[in-house]
Amino acid sequence: MKKSLNCLLASVFLGAACLGAAAPLASSAFSASADSSSFVKTEPDERYKLYGAPSVILRLKNEDALGEIDLSSDERPANVILTLDDGMNVLSASGGVIGSFDDVFAQIYLAAIPVAEIKTQSVAEAFVSAYESNKISDIAVLSDNADVLSYVRGALPGIRGIYDCSAKPLTDKKEIIKTSGAAMATTLILSYEQSDLETVTYFQSRMKTVWTELPDDADAFDVKNAVASGTYGLIKNDCSAIFKAYASYKGGSLNEGGKYIQPSVARYSLNIAHRGLPVTRAENTVEGCKAAVESGATHIEIDAQLSKDNQIVIMHDASIARTTDYESGAQNISDMTLEEIRRYKVCKTMNGYKTEACEIPTAEDFFKEFKGKPVVFVFEIKNAAPALVTELRKLIETYDFWDQMTVISFSSTVLETMHEVLPEVPVASLSGFAQRSFEEDSAFYNAYNAVADITQGNLGDYTYFESTLKDRGYMSFCWTIGSAQDCISLSSAGEFGLTNNVADAFGASVCKIEGKAGQSAEAAELKAGGKIRLITTTYAGDTEEQDGTIFAVKKYEDHAEVIAAYEEVERVTYTRAFRVDYPKQEEKKGGCKSSVGGGIFAALVSAAAIAIAEKRKNA
Questions:
Q1: What radius of gyration, in Å, describes the C-alpha atoms of the chain?
Q2: Residues 80 and 208 in one domain
Q3: Number of neighbours of residue 525 by Cβ within 10 angstroms
């Protein structure tokens, strides 16, 4: 089996070593693609109506489902999960053999990205043994066992890792973040029941992509409800219900009846405050970042330098000269002790304007101020990687700051050091994942378990971030945005993590919608297009009651579950399903007449009471 597998792989995979063009092909199916990239070209298809739509993932449970994976079809899954045994066979849901990995892979080659599900150590060892000389460029490994996943990812660092938490308790989400990081997984699988808005947002705010496992009997309503959680992927044994649901979203580039329709958007964006509020406040200061959080920032992006006495100083430049009241003398942070550094104050914005003077802060100052508050750090490490990362680990352990920390860097040395010293903390590359070199770079960044935080310049091609990145579990984090309007426009295009200089202005935008509690309506009135009441919440925490439009309804005996759409100037977003009760029988009997009659009756009772009181008074 191993010999057969290696023979096939040698002809079709891009690996660490270049293979000769004369290598034998396993079948004619590979002859046409021998000179092509082994990276699957996934397409947005119907998803262009729904910006940021979750990737479609097929869990292969029987041989018939292979018919869904057709390269000529617009409605094919982006990924297919193949459950393997230690003989490298693909198993069905009942444990039977669908076929060898060779045969199944030949059927999906270039049509869908393979995800190898490995449940035991013996299967892990067989998988690594089969691939030790021929690595597949475009593949992910999936397991619910962190040790198994860590073993495979350690042996094959160029592939992607996925940690299945769908059957695990989520009572300690912080441990899930740490465990998945140590096991080299950037994507988590949650069950449909686990995938509420709060839980999905928690993980994805910490650079862990969520894929949601739908029940086998999930219908289009369940798909739309899962979409509204913000999840980045939907897994199902039959993907037709997913595509049916996607086709019902309207908007984007479509014009219906001559009327422009705003794009539907799958999730709200993160409001990442770049150096706090650098346009109006002293940048990279505790005071500026506090103001950003109070005005709606979900994250604060700050920059780290290491002083001569190994203190982590928060400053963008290696020198203190640009943003402080420095005039002469030593200016490089690496050449100064913290005591020397703190002779000066930060007193300028990023544009050089004078502002209120603030103390030059350390990382510890930030940890003390923001510990336990609803904000996540996006911590950029500039240089001095080994020593700085070692000191950072000490601080994280001291303040138990594990679930409030992510790290970004331009430096591959920093990413490598993070992987070695702080693997539990999610990391992102600021310089990799350029569209022109994605295929060459991906294995390199997978080895550091890094995700993408890309410059706006790489967002020009819709297919790149909507398919190439997203379908491989990379969320769209980008930098740096200069205006609130640009933030809104990018959010309306499906961008997720928005590092920006105007977190206060963007903070006035809506970031959450939910159905108003306690509503009731007749079953016949609850239909698509009808009106319903919603509560909107901005990043800054301001709430308002608004009109919404019913998007989908599932009716039961005494109530209905409703998903509603909220329309803004540039986008349409959707609520999670919420309950609307039917009026009770007592209410139905009275209706409007009951309300009026009740008022007359109350007036008569009141008049009688007054008459009795007067009679007693005169007695």
A1: 28
A2: yes
A3: 14
Q: What is the pLDDT of residues 369-414, one digit of tens each?
A: 999 999 999 999 988 779 999 999 999 999 999 999 999 999 999 9
Q: Is 459 left (phi over 0), alpha (psi -120 to 50) or beta?
A: alpha
Q: Which DSSP string corresponds to 362-404? A: BHHHHHHHHTTSS-EEEEEE-S-HHHHHHHHHHHHHHHT-GGG
Mean pLDDT over 577-605 rounds to: 60
Residue 288 in domain: yes
**Residue recorded with tokens 């693909």:** 90
Do both 380 and 524 map to the same domain? no
Q: Region 179-203: what's the mean pLDDT?
A: 98
List the domain range (segments joined by +) for residue 423: 270-506
Q: Which amino acid is at 163?
A: Y
Total of domains in the chain? 3
Which residue bears the tokens 């092509």?
A: 36
Classify residue 342: in a domain, yes or no: yes
Residue with tokens 């690996």: 15
Residue 107 φ then ψ, to 5° = -80, -30
Q: Is 471 found in the same domain as 345? A: yes
Q: Are residues 275 and 192 in the same domain?
A: no
- The model's confidence at residue 302, banded by pLDDT at 50, 70 and 90, is very high
Buried b (16+ CB within 10 A) or exposed e, 235-251: bbbbbebbbebbebbbb
What are the pLDDT digits (tens) for 138-151? 999 999 999 999 99
Domain contains 602: no
How far, in Å, CA of 243 to CA of 433, rounded? 28
